[in-house]
Here is the input.
Amino acid sequence: MKKAKISAVSTFHYFRLTYRSVLFLAVLIKYIVTRINGSEFYFSEHVVESYGLLFGVVWLIFMVEMVLRFSPSVIESPGCQKQFSKNYTPTGRTDVVLHDNNAAVIVALAWIVFNLIIGAFYMAGFLDDGIMLLLCLAYSVCDMICILFFCPFQTWFLKSKCCCTCRIYNWDYAMMFTPLFFLKSWYTWSLLAAAICLLARWEITVWLFPERFSENTNQYLNCENCSERLCAHKKQLARFRISLTQYAAKTINRILKK
Here is the structure.
């Protein structure tokens, strides 16, 4: 069977997965070193000055990512690009179907409750600023894992066919930076503010132009027009996992029979 070529959009996803993982590991190492030295990790002027370069890189990367998300891009997923008028190609139908609106509300409530629990631990003193920042960076890595490999929101809640039709695609940064609500710093709140602006624009667009978000009314969301081709890549990964599992089972059986 011929292997599907990874698209430019998917390649960009892998690139983001790589540098987000590197950022997480870099901050994790800094955090461990700080705690080993007996210092607290808080967003005070001292900490920001001590680790200014690392914090600056993290802030700049994600701020640039969010600013670029406000405009159409050829290397971004169609999942977040369907909000723009230039990507709306009418099918001629008028029956806008957005089955996952109720599921989106459930996802939002579940995410808020989950992070409120984490926030309660932070307010009680069980978690410090460093852990909250690491949690955000872990969310950022998980965001790319959801896109490239497996998304629990799509599978268990939204039931959408792929990321291209995902109702909550542009919620990613707001979900990613939710823990920053509890950290009183311009550094953290500026990231959260930009993420909320992205979320607000997305939801306002869904409300005003729902036809852009429905496969029934927007040809841009049809499979034949997809520039991402992640579904083909995910099927290859699924076949590889099945083959690997079968090989492992055969190997174990062969060993047990000896």
Summary: Residues 118 and 253 are 44 Å apart (CA to CA). The radius of gyration is 21 Å. The chain is about 65% helix and 0% strand. Residues 8-36 form the longest helix (29 residues).
